[in-house]
Amino acid sequence: xxxxxxxxxxxxxxxxxxxxxxxxxxxxxxxxxxxxxxxxxxxxxxxxxxxxxxxxxxxxxxxxxxxxxxxxxxxxxxxxxxxxxxxxxxxxxxxxxxxxxxxxxxxxxxxxxxxxxxxxxxxxxxxxxxxxxxxxxxxxxxxxxxxxxxxxxxxxxxxxxxxxxxxxxxxxxxxxxxxxxxxxxxxxxxxxxxxxxxxxxxxxxxxxxxxxxxxxxxxxxxxxxxxxxxxxxxxxxxxxxxxxxxxxxxxxxxxxxxxxxxxxxxxxxxxxxxxxxxxxxxxxxxxxxxxxxxxxxxxxxxxxxxxxxxxxxxxxxxxxxxxxxxxxxxxxxxxxxxxxxxxxxxxxxxxxxxxxxxxxxxxxxxxxxxxxxxxxxxxxxxxxxxxxxxxxxxxxxxxxx
Length: 401
Description:
This is Putative S-layer protein. Keywords: Signal. Residues 199-262, 267-330, 337-401 form the SLH domain. There is one protein chain. By secondary structure, the protein is α+β, with helices and mostly antiparallel strands. The chain has two domains: 38-189, no CATH class; 213-397, no CATH class. The chain has eight helices and 14 strands. The chain has helices at 3-33, 183-189, 213-222, 241-253, 281-289, 309-326, 351-359, 382-397; strands spanning 35-39, 45-52, 55-63, 72-74, 80-82, 94-97, 103-107, 110-111, 116-123, 126-133, 139-144, 153-158, 162-169, 172-181. Strands 2, 3, 4, 5, 6, 9, 10, 11 and 12 form a nine-stranded antiparallel β-sheet that branches. A hairpin with a 2-residue loop joins strand 13 and strand 14. Helix 3 packs across helix 8, helix 4 (241-253) packs parallel to helix 6 (309-326) and helix 4 runs parallel beside helix 8. It is elongated and about 80 Å long. The N and C termini lie far apart (99 Å).
């Protein structure tokens, strides 16, 4: 093989390799064009300024609904984050992004991850999250902590015009978070700093990020459910059948024109497995006599058994009917909204009542208020039981005309 031929072959090889590289590059362009963003529940995601020696590091954490709590919040200006995700294997409960591989800046619906970097800087008496332009090093404030506290994880509140979104590819959400900005809204906010966030106080240390936080607080204020001595509510702990009876009677008793107070002591043994001396016996007896609860086919009540979400609906429906008939009205409940279609109740014994209670002030709702699954056979957590009972209470207290 002569030298001239060798040079020609090498030249062609280079051309071929270049064509392959360019072809690969161009083949990626359509894929890039298919990336987008997806809205996410802002209350279930937070940006955290994590102390790390001389600097703060940015971490983004998202709570997976219905799973173990990822963080707790306390205080304001600044709000301190307790990083619960560091105390257990958070896989399946929390989504976390701790570097630029997991989050980036997006402006006006366009991926600008190559144009901006994100940095946490101390500015006066607070920590600011800034988007730094790679072109001219200019800085735009994305969020603030509204204060500092030495050695503590701090919540970063996003400025007006900014929100969390998820990166998508071909319509499928990825694990990558966007700090998504709307330049018009950012410009409208101007240089005036946003007002310090108003942090809703919580009576409990474990409900700050719970979906049902506000309804739990209202239920506690009404007095038909309470927390524990250690200042926790244990929102996801299953509610027992006897606890439900006590809670429902308490809720009905707060409606001014209803007489729903159980006697102090049981006069009989209401069920074979509920002795007359049991703490809940009088309430169970009263609820049974007023057709609010029923036992099982074998005659038992199973007071300590966790109540299922379907059983919860049955008791709340009976309680609402009790309120109607006590007022001299028909037992038929007046619906207030459209019926919700759940994907997992077809053929279930509680199908019709679950659908009805979804239209009755939204008492029946999707698991953790997301998706289309009701999970009728799953135990009801204290959080949902409190919220559903509160909705029934409110519907009874303000009946439709």
